[in-house]
Amino acid sequence: MEKCNDSSEYSFILVGFSDRPKLEMVLFIVNFILYSMAVLGNSTIILVYLCFSTSCIPQMLVNLWGPDKTISYAGCVVQLFSFLSVGGIECILLAVMAYDRYAAVCKPLHYLVIMHPQLCLGLVAAAWGSGLVNAIVMSPLTMTLSRCGRCRVNHFLCEMPALIKMACVDARAVEMLVFAFAILIVLLPLALILVSYGYITAAVLTVKSAARRWKAVKTCSSHLTVVSLFYGSIIYMYMQPGNSSFQDQGKFLTLFYNVVTPMLNPLIYTLRNKEVKGALKKVLGRQ
Predict the structure, then answer these.
(1) For the chain, what is the HEC assignment?
(2) Which class for 81: exposed (0-12), middle (13-18), buried (19 or more C-beta within 10 A)?
(3) Any idea what the CATH number is for the domain that residue 174 is in?
(4) Is residue 3 part of a domain?
(5) Rg (CA), the chain
(6) pTM, whole model, 2 decimals?
(7) Residues of the chain with pLDDT under 70
(8) What residue numbers bound the domain in which 246 lies?
(9) Does residue 262 lie in a domain region?
(10) Domain count, the chain
(11) Residue 245: what pLDDT?
């Protein structure tokens, strides 16, 4: 074995494939692409599930800590844009995930053919595009409404309905556009989710094996839990009357799907995974 000189006392040489320089270059390119995709994919997931919380909770903590309750105009614009874009993205991603569950349960032998990489990439791009279009269109329209000097927002964040209520001009055109986007980004994905789970339920009921039925239920339970928490909060909040007691409930519900739902995501998704459970047991020393 080749010996190292004295200067390498505090370092080591990683040989790897140094005897095959051409293979090293091929492996570099392949691993760089795969690593970039892994970072991009996981960063996307983190961005989607944290932006809801990050867009409003830090500002709310500042307001709760001291007497200063102000937020700058630019800060309000950023908050509204983040809230609308990430909210729209999550609504559509939940529908995409429901279709994924449908393919896994109802068409297991054709799953890889149905959910091929090009389709997955297209669906994710559609989700991001829809969320960004929602924010790009609605944020300027909401922020440019005349408020006649009014600056008190009856909420703890710059939420679109609260800002529209402050307008001192006829905002029915903006409200109709809000309704149209709500149908496309909230109700249509929800309808697709319900249809997917209708097919899944019908397929599960025809399965005779209890073990296979339980496996199908476990496949869908985590996603269905998130859908129930997320959509339940949003639908209840936006269908309530306008009196003060219900407005306070709306504030708490906004907190719920901004803080509680993201907090539960690791428990609902990751910790239900057998590999993650096994890794945690090893880390904790429980074999």
Answers:
(1) CCCCCHHHCCCCCCCCCCCCHHHHHHHHHHHHHHHHHHHHHHHHHHHHHHHHHHCCHHHHHHHHHCCCCCCCHHHHHHHHHHHHHHHHHHHHHHHHHHHHHHHHHHCHHHHHHHCCHHHHHHHHHHHHHHHHHHHHHHHHHHHCCCCCCCCCCCCCCCCHHHHHHCCCCCCHHHHHHHHHHHHHHHHHHHHHHHHHHHHHHHHHHCCCCHHHHHHHHHHHHHHHHHHHHHHHHHHHHHCCCCCHHHHHHHHHHHHHHHHHHHHHHHHHCHHHCHHHHHHHHHHCCCC
(2) buried
(3) 1.20.1070.10
(4) no
(5) 24
(6) 0.73
(7) 1-16, 18, 41, 44-45, 48-49, 51-52, 236-250, 257, 264-287
(8) 11-284
(9) yes
(10) 1
(11) 47
pLDDT at 183: 87
Task: Report the distance separating Cα 26 and Cα 42, nearest Å.
Answer: 24
CB atoms within 10 A of CB 110: 10
In a domain, 135, yes or no: yes
Cβ atoms within 10 A of the Cβ of 240, count? 14
pLDDT at 276: 54
Cα angle for residues 158, 251, 180 (degrees, 5° grid): 60
Give me the pLDDT at residue 234, please. Answer: 73
Residues 6+ apart with CB under 8 A from 173: none
Residue 275: what pLDDT? 54
| Distance, CA of 243 to CA of 241 (rounded, Å) | 6
Q: 230 in a domain, yes or no?
A: yes
CA 205, distance to chain mean position in Å, is 30
Structure tokens at 204: 């599960």
Q: Give the position of tokens 């007691």.
A: 245
Q: What's at 138, amino acid-wise?
A: M
